[in-house]
Amino acid sequence: MWRWVRQQLGFDPPHQSDTRTIYIANRFPQNGLYTPQKFIDNRIISSKYTVWNFVPKNLFEQFRRVANFYFLIIFLVQLMIDTPTSPITSGLPLFFVITVTAIKQGYEDWLRHNSDNEVNGAPVYVVRSGGLVKTRSKNIRVGDIVRIAKDEIFPADLVLLSSDRLDGSCHVTTASLDGETNLKTHVAVPETAVLQTVASLDTLVAVIECQQPEADLYRFMGRMIITQQMEEIVRPLGPESLLLRGARLKNTKEIFGVAIYTGMETKMALNYKSKSQKRSAVEKSMNTFLIIYLIILISEAIISTILKYTWQAEEKWDEPWYNQKTEHQRNSSKILRFISDFLAFLVLYNFIIPISLYVTVEMQKFLGSFFIGWDLDLYHEESDQKAQVNTSDLNEELGQVEYVFTDKTGTLTENEMQFRECSINGIKYQEINGRLVSEGPTPDSSDGNLSYLNSLSHLNNLSHLTTSSSFRTSPENETELIKEHDLFFKAVSLCHTVQISNVQTDGIGDGPWQSNLAPSQLEYYASSPDEKALVEAAARIGIVFIGNSEETMEVKTLGKLERYKLLHILEFDSDRRRMSVIVQAPSGEKFLFAKGAESSILPNCVGGEIEKTRIHVDEFALKGLRTLCMAYKQLTSKEYEEIDRRLFEARTALQQREEKLADVFQFIEKNLILLGATAVEDRLQDRVRETIEGLRMAGIKVWVLTGDKHETAVSVSLSCGHFHRTMNILELINQKSDSQCAEQLRQLARRIKEDHVIQHGLVVDGTSLSLALREHEKLFMEVCRNCSAVLCCRMAPLQKAKVIRLIKISPEKPITLAVGDGANDVSMIQEAHVGIGIMGKEGRQAARNSDYAIARFKFLSKLLFVHGHFYYIRIATLVQYFFYKNVCFITPQFLYQFYCLFSQQTLYDSVYLTLYNICFTSLPILIYSLLEQHIDPHVLQSKPTLYRDISKNRQLSIKTFLYWTILGFSHAFIFFFGSYFLIGKDISLLGNGQLLKPNHQMMFGNWTFGTLVFTVMVITVTVKMALETHFWTWINHLVTWGSIIFYFVFSLFYGGILWPFLGSQNMYFVFIQLLSSGSAWFAIILMVVTCLLLDIVKKVFERQLHPTNTEKAQLIKANSSIKCLDSMCCFSEGETACASVGRMLERVVGRCSPTHVSRCW
């Protein structure tokens, strides 16, 4: 029973065995001995709360915050003991904060629920009871047979049963899972491949036994037991039979598959990192500051309690005639009285902890996040997508990023390759408007712009490949030149693994090189984007790959169909870095065509223009183009028989199959004749290079984490500016053991130390990374920290998250940002401090699970340099200003106790205590935190180096924090003692509640005194906020000056009328009496000016003597005559400090219009 309860609560998985047994179509055995296993449903859950756990879970998370928990304790203390203030003064703000925060977080989680419901409610077709039933994705059960049509996404992990092809094969793309856009072929077992209809599948009786779910995308082991005619047939199942959730069906009309893993047990979901609460660096600083202020609070309470008992040691003060003790008080325990007094002082001073800080921060984050969505610069018109904010808690973290981890495919690139140039027999060509144009003179023409396209009209009579020696050397006439070009592009059209669909050959290539028809009528699916781009380029030139049927490849040249028999494919691998095909031409001749990197092709060539081609390849690479070399050789019958025999022996070997195949491939791919080279551009997204360069200038290190192969990743890194051509590229790849990996890391570390000038870039693959992270983390991190750029290729999704976690927990504790567009990027997006999803072509998994979603990588620069900068400055000022104004608020209360014998008498009226943070001083800082622009956004984006001024949480450093705290204490002393000495002997202000000085001289009433202190304080902290404001709008003016006016109007009404619902009204006529005194007005103005003058002078001299880069940029912007509204204490270049202060005073008294002042800092 207990185990069942734990399973229902999610503490124990429902299945404990290493394997699971799945009955296809849920046809369970009829005997009663079988107990069906329980599997989870197919729902995907990315939300954090449910209806049932929202209240307790949200309350738990909120009371983890120091201020919330503290005010809860204070509220309970006020309920339990007699305290100077009402429980409402703490309970009401606490309730307000908790409620607003819960509404905000509930709304954000509601959006995640809607996103989950959209996925879980997607329509699917399931075979049930002999028919095809339409249902929702969430209703799929393990064992259901699901039908998927072309271009649909698999809703669960399926084992392929059959497709519309007789061989039971299908093609899928896993771009949203591992970032690879190539087509992968999956096959069904022969016994189920023939079951292509619902009726035939209904007769299938089979059982699948497989491993329990695991996160590895490329590992799957199982077997299918098929019962046919009372016999059991056992077939093995591997990764080639498994169709993963999130992958997309391509080039296949429809398939049927059985669901084996569903919902959160699919491999895609298991690669999601569990969603945890992310906390920004600013929030961590807030908690630190709160603890410091809590220590100050406790210290003040202890000092006050001790001094109270010290004072009461004299009998006349222990029990004065006006405050006689009761018998119970006389007999009570001294310890209990001490604790009670300590708690009472704690309640009296508790407002030094600003509870409204949290609600203001929550409102600022929530409302401020809308500006990201409203930013037209972050709107992508082509896709009609605007930026999205999924979590507003991290807005300011955008201004603290030190590491950016980015995916490659679909994030940096458009996933579209384009053929640009080629070198054929030592002559370089480039494609211009569908024509190949030579960049230099051909042997038969002095015209350097001879169009190859116009010279091929004589090829109509060319029926097969020409292999005479005439084109193995320099051609002697135009016909030989054309034959060589023809051979080159036929090699391009035949040496690949491209698939084709929607074949419509009528009209393709019927005229001489009809280049404009092929792309619109043929749909190619390639094993790599390069292959697709090359085959499409050959089609534009006029040699069109039509498709393959069984073992035949069809090519159409000038309208003439040619069939080549495909004899063997020598697959690409990362060690050889090339692939080859062996074909038989229509003439019966056999040819080997090879394609690969120049480092693997050129050393195996014995003929052709090798040196010229090498030079051209280097030129292509310098342009950031992806290069491949093409070569061929003709095989004699004897040579082919030897090759065929060796390939058969290697491919059927049970031992050391990979090594034997490598030896055979090396034997075959030698003595080649070089045809030329191709140059393909991996089309980057707009402004990727500029964005990466801007990030680098901002002091942000960029890492590229991709699932692509090594060569592809390095090429893109070079083309996008991640790697520079002058950078020394270090490699940690193909490591086989821990010792080998450690030795290689030590060598790399030595190389970096020996060369202190050149920049280094590091390339590491997934296998080597696993070894490095296993036992050599410190050494690996040492190498990485000394590299300007790092590229990790062949990365599994969880490896990406591990790399980010490794950086996060390093001694420097840097702030990390991850950006990606596919489901394979979700883990790293959730692991990083800030996760950015690209709303690209690989689905919406990344965008749904990210903190922010943008349409293009280029938008990252404005998101960080402008929005991140603004949000950080705003919230840093907000946090410190709140502590400042609360120190100003409570310190006079502490000082007042020295003048009332520590009787716990309040200095302020309870209404003022409650409304100070809620009404009188809340709006100016809130509007500042939403609208402040201390520098023009265009300057921030054009000067990424300004981002360094706010890095490392500099605006919330201990030094800055102490400055604001000391400023608050100094202002509080001026408020209290200024009021005491300036107005203390004004007989006209005598009022209720006379206050005795230690020398027994009378001073004005305590409520009048407290109101004067409060009035000076409200004006000072509000004008202080005005001094911090650089960007003035009518809203800023309204809330700044309106707050002061509201305070005066409220106090006049509150103290000028006898309100019947108030039991006692201590403030009656106090404020009116205060304002009737000229000395009070003089004191208010003098204290406000005194408080702010020192701060103004400090700012002026600090900016004059030690300006930051941001302040210099503000000065330059001001001198460029760009008009805007500035701070009251700005100054122009060459202006003296006195002139600046004089100008500020003019503005304060209204003799200068702020609308005509230029922003200077």
TrEMBL record:
Q: Which cofactor does it need?
A: Mg(2+)
Classify the protein's membrane topology as the record does. Multi-pass membrane protein
Query: Binding of Mg(2+): at which residues?
Result: D407, T409, D821, D825
Q: Where does ATP bind?
A: D407, K408, T409, E531, F572, K595, R626, T706, G707, D708, R794, K800, N824, D825
Q: Which residues form the P-type ATPase C-terminal domain?
A: 847-1108
Biological process terms in GO annotation: phospholipid translocation
Q: Where can this protein be found? A: Early endosome; Endoplasmic reticulum; Golgi apparatus, trans-Golgi network; Membrane
- Active site as annotated: D407 (4-aspartylphosphate intermediate)
Q: What does this protein do?
A: Catalytic component of a P4-ATPase flippase complex which catalyzes the hydrolysis of ATP coupled to the transport of aminophospholipids, phosphatidylserines (PS) and phosphatidylethanolamines (PE), from the outer to the inner leaflet of intracellular membranes. May contribute to the maintenance of membrane lipid asymmetry in endosome compartment.
> What family classification does the UniProt entry report for this protein?
Belongs to the cation transport ATPase (P-type) (TC 3.A.3) family. Type IV subfamily.
- This protein is called Phospholipid-transporting ATPase
Taxonomic lineage is: Eukaryota, Metazoa, Chordata, Craniata, Vertebrata
Question: Its gene?
Answer: ATP11B
